[in-house]
Amino acid sequence: MKFTHILGAAALSLGAAFSGAASAADINGAGASFPAPVYQAWAAAYKEKTGTGLNYQSIGSGGGQNQIVNRTVDFGASDAPMKDDKLESASLLQFPTVIGSVVAIVNLDGVEGLVLNGAVLADIYQGKITKWNDAKIEALNKGKKLPDVAIVPVYRSDSSGTSFVFTSYLAATNADWKANVGAATSVQWPTGAGAKGNEGVAGTVKNTKGAVGYVEFIYAAANKLATTDLVNKAGKVVTPSVKAFMEAAEAADWTHAKNFAASMIDTAGDGAWPITSATYILLPKNPTSAAQSAEVIKFFDWAYGAEGDAIAEKLHYIPLPGPVVEEIKKAWASEVKADGKAVWTN
Amino acid sequence: MDATISGAQATGLVTAHKPTGRISDPVFVGLLWGCGIFVLILLGLIIAMLFEGGLPALREFGISFLWSTTWNPVTERFGAGVMVFGTLFSAVIAVIVALPLSFGIAFFLTEIAPGPLRRPIGVAIQLLAAVPSIIYGMWGFFIIVPLMAAYVQPPLIDWLSPIPVIGALFQGPPLGAGMLTAGLIMAIMILPFITAMFVEVLESVPPMIKESAYGVGATTYEVYRNVSVPYGRTAMVGAVMLGLGRALGETMAVTFVIGNATRMSASLFAPGATIASTIANEFPEASTGSLKLQALLQLGFILFVISFIVLALSRLLVRTKG
Question: Which residue intervals define the domain ABC transmembrane type-1 in the entry (chain B) (predicted)?
């Protein structure tokens, strides 16, 4: 990988030359695109308040992980939690920032409030259910007139955290999906068509009669897309809403989750939305610059506060439950150390 | 008055000018050498990086990586088969569509078009080449894909899919996005390049030969068919190869309209993937040292080799013209 490194270093030094305009105390982060809007909104408000700027490059979770492992940024961001052994070997602290969720969207004329569940969605994406008037879909939608139209499944062609969350849900609710396809940022889709980004999936679904797709809730809400209801683990029909996402977040098993990687997929709880997930920050436990690391922590400490929560909620993200934030603050104080001294104290 | 002043300045400059010294000229020549060698080194480094970066994937999967049709990021089993097929298939569609159009436009411009019309059409074609790839992608996604899904694909599927053999090209649901749509968009993108070279070739046909043909009573079509085209045939084939080369590496527009499915299908309407679109889609989430990244780099190397072969062929053919 020698040449890769040489070219990579060249690209980075070029990047550094351009970002040189920002002041030295500014924080640099890179990674997941899903939380990018809220990080940027936080950065703008934080800069106004404290004068400390934050440059966040939305380059994808994989890129964020690479950059923080190589220590070319102050923090990395990833939608899917990093594996425990990888966190260990790169000595990174992982903590969630906000919670988001994924919703299913459909293009089906004349059908209001369509209800689906994970097993049926997985069958659709495996090509086992091909018509909207299939008996399995009709069983979930008693009393609704479903058309004899072919189902066109649409998925994200670019590898993304959204696909990771969605396929995790399909794998959790459908054994065949788990065995044959699995859950990852990109998978070998058995059927359907891929489109780039939320906008690509939404556009393709809009253009194609009988299409079904999945997008982040924030995107669906901002564009007023027709979403479906889902049957959750408790057997209740839930409509995507901030309240349903919060229930999912509270139902998650935070206390036993290592590295805060609590699964919010298909949690118990009557009102919990089943496709919910947190997005994560990766911070070095052995920072090269204690001051810089402290700035990052101060920023997220502020973001977990009332002001940060208000901004997140305005953008349809779900703030973390209070007890989880307390745990994260403890982890900051005890785990992030420069020369054996904690860089930040609560 | 002006002339005298500038004349005086010119002589002043000449007398003030010191003759190029023993140092400065070799430095200048050295810089020129540097510029030339730089290109070679850059190209060599890129090839080496792609090959070295992709080597672990080749070691892992063996030579069957080249034709294996598996692309499963979950189990980390990768193969280039679907993408190589998609790259060639979509590029060939693009050339098949662009070729007759380019012939028509080029001959119209050189022989038929009245003087005042020649320039606007020529400029319009050059402007097509100046439209950024992403714009073609958006146009394709928002305009062409819905049109294909609503008006082109359903009747074609109804009429042609029951026919044996040919029917295999028209299977599947009318998604709009797919191989054919990608080929059509790319055809428009390579049209200006092929047309420009055709115009050049047709203009290089000596007028005397054409006049002679008209003189013995040949029609426009006969002159075109029997004089102009045979005169520049090899160069034209070279132009087509150049267009093919451009189509092979096209990324952004294709990613929007090809449907991005890593599945093999002979159907024109089935979603597929090209090497370039796969790299664009998968790269952001491929982490350092992962097999996926290595497979992507190896894909890049394969694309490089394919493009190199096509480009070398086109160079060879263009050079042997006449």
Answer: 84-314
